[in-house]
Amino acid sequence: MQYTVEIDQELCTGCHRCIDVCPVGAIGGPAGMAADINYDKCCFCGQCVQICSAYQEYKSETSAPRETKMKDRGLLASVREPLFAAHNMGHAQKVWEAINNPNVVTMVQCAPAVRVGLAEDFGVASGELVAGKMITALRKLGFDRVYDTNFTADLTIMEEGSELIKRIQENGVLPMFTSCCPAWVKYVEQEHFELHENLSTCKSPQQMAGALFKTYGAQVDKLEPKKIVSVSVMPCTAKKFEASRPEMNASGSQDVDLVLTTRELANLIKHAGIDFKSLKPSQPDSVLGTYTGAGHIFGVTGGVMEAALRTGYELITGNPLDDINILDVRHSQGVKRATLQVGDLAVKTVVVAGLENAAPIIDEIKNGTADFHFVEVMACPQGCISGGGQPKVLLETERKQVYASRMASMYKHDEELPLRKSHDNPEITKVYKDFLGKPLGHKSHELLHTHYCRRG
Amino acid sequence: MEKLSHFVVGDGTKCIGCKACEVACHASHSVNGITAGNIDTPVFPKLFVTRVEEVTVPVQCHHCEDAPCAQACLEKAIYFAGDKVLIDTDKCKACKDCLMACPFGAVELVSQFVNGEEVIQENLKKPRMYANKCDLCDTRKQGPICVEVCPKQALRLVDPHKEKKEKNRKAVATIVGMFKK
């Protein structure tokens, strides 16, 4: 297993703010002493990485100099920002090698929340949407194909929405949990394995994209799958763990080879000497790059739920929603419950923002009092926009406003997009027609669904 | 009577040693951006979280009325601006006299960086250095950022006059309490 989050014992001052912010009680240590991570409990959400302010002082007499620590952390030699005690393992160096290797074909995908955080590391105000510039930067870096995780977010909705309807109609295991947050999935596997059947069997959008890159993508581009290096850019540190799960190899090899955080992508762009601010926007490559607003809002708490309801409502009733903006599932401050009338069925939903808030929901399920059908859980406080791999906010006093800006930007982009329902995405229709068959079909099951394992 | 200078003081019973104040100090003075990715030089805070046994507390300039650092500076690079003791970094010759004179160790010598690059002195083949210390966030309307960002409210801006008056009141209250017995 790949430990993606670490605390440098030499730099940690023992302030223990990471202990306070950890949603699963995985960090501990004696008062005033360096904190340590229990990897049997850690879900790699990276909130400790976000909050840590203990840094390596200039020319401090640590056992390893800055250069050595940077190498150990997988950071590019050009990185200038301070080294903080809590950090995630980086893969930018490996990605740099891949994009400069003429013998491989690099394919990249970016998660929704990346495009509302990335610009912050270039001195731009919080939450500015840079979807187009991000695509241009990835091309300039040398990626051969620039696709989008938003596309597979739409695909996830097709699969997960169909799965939810099936479970409801056939008296399957309910409530169904979302499964796109790898920190949440790991938490269920290690703390509440008896509820693993409640997890949707859908892979996350990252892993669906990875599986398609080396199968459908290879087929479309007439490429040898073994030559493909599949890269993802995520606002998340747990995605590195998810990509390394041994079962994530539906394509015949690891579906996602390398995962970068948003911060690492910023480092890579700087390393290449690209003037990010002056870039002209461009579009991702077809077929795995077109997306709708529904796929895009995966990046905020309540987004998966809203996207699923937009499609589910229409699939069941045959009519579109009166109002596509389902405000009742947005802006969860912990646990937010809502009921949506879908034909004859009152669909009851719960949106959990922040893994520490999942406990009462789990208790209700275990004691038989749960009356809801669908639960979305995101480990990070406001969903992926506040992920452990997002640009690290320097002042705690600004964090709330920064997250609010990122969130507002996500919804604004959703409203601006011509298509806002996953099932309206023409490329989704095409991928089912040309390759997958139908949602929950044999090929989908093979490539887009997964199983879970007991941990701890 | 001359208005006494304010200064920031840390409470060792509250401080957890997280260095959020140091990072905020550097960010406020030297970073154009809200995230760590915008830091392109080493972190040079103007206050110094210091640990002695189990106690941590930031140490910073007291803006002394007689400013021994300013007294010691032969270049007259240290001066009073209102009630703040400030350093003119262009005048500073990095002679370290202020560092020696300060009773708190509140002055540090740091390398100069321009556009993220260390300034190297051609003749000496050495970085250009200057004295660096708390300026009470001189140009920041809201006052010292360290006070604002401390997650444990361990820092406060001391107004010496108010402090004295408060202590006077406490002394009297103690006496009143004694008589009430």
UniProtKB/TrEMBL annotation, chain A:
Domain (4Fe-4S ferredoxin-type) ranges: 3-32, 33-63
E.C. number, please?
Answer: 1.12.1.3
Instruction: Note the PROSITE patterns from the entry.
Output: 4FE4S_FER_1, 4FE4S_FER_2
Q: Name one Pfam family in it.
A: Fe_hyd_lg_C
**Keyword annotations for this protein?**
Iron, Iron-sulfur, Metal-binding, Oxidoreductase
A GO MF annotation of the entry reads: ferredoxin hydrogenase activity
Where exactly are the transmembrane stretches of this chain? none
Listed SMART domains: Fe_hyd_SSU (SM00902)
InterPro entries reported for this sequence: 4Fe4S_Fe-S-bd (IPR017896), 4Fe4S_Fe_S_CS (IPR017900), Cytosolic_Fe-S_CAF (IPR050340), Fe_hydrogenase (IPR009016), Fe_hydrogenase_lsu_C (IPR004108), Fe_hydrogenase_ssu (IPR003149), Fe_hydrogenase_ssu_sf (IPR036991), Fe_hydrogenase_subset (IPR013352)
Q: What class of enzyme is it?
A: oxidoreductase
Where is coiled-coil annotated? none
Name the PANTHER family for this protein.
Answer: NITRATE, FORMATE, IRON DEHYDROGENASE
Q: What is this protein called?
A: NADP-reducing hydrogenase subunit HndD
- Organism encoding this protein: Sporomusa termitida
TrEMBL record, chain B:
Q: Does the keyword Iron-sulfur apply?
A: yes
Superkingdom of source: Bacteria
Quote one Gene Ontology molecular function term: metal ion binding
What EC number(s) has UniProt assigned to this enzyme?
Answer: 1.-.-.-
Instruction: Name the top EC class.
Output: oxidoreductase
Give the record's keywords alphabetically.
4Fe-4S, Iron, Iron-sulfur, Metal-binding, Oxidoreductase
The record ties this protein, via CDD domains, to: HycB_like
Q: Signal sequence: where? A: none
- According to UniProt, the name of this protein is Hydrogenase-4 component A
Natural source organism: Sporomusa termitida
Q: Which gene encodes it?
A: hyfA
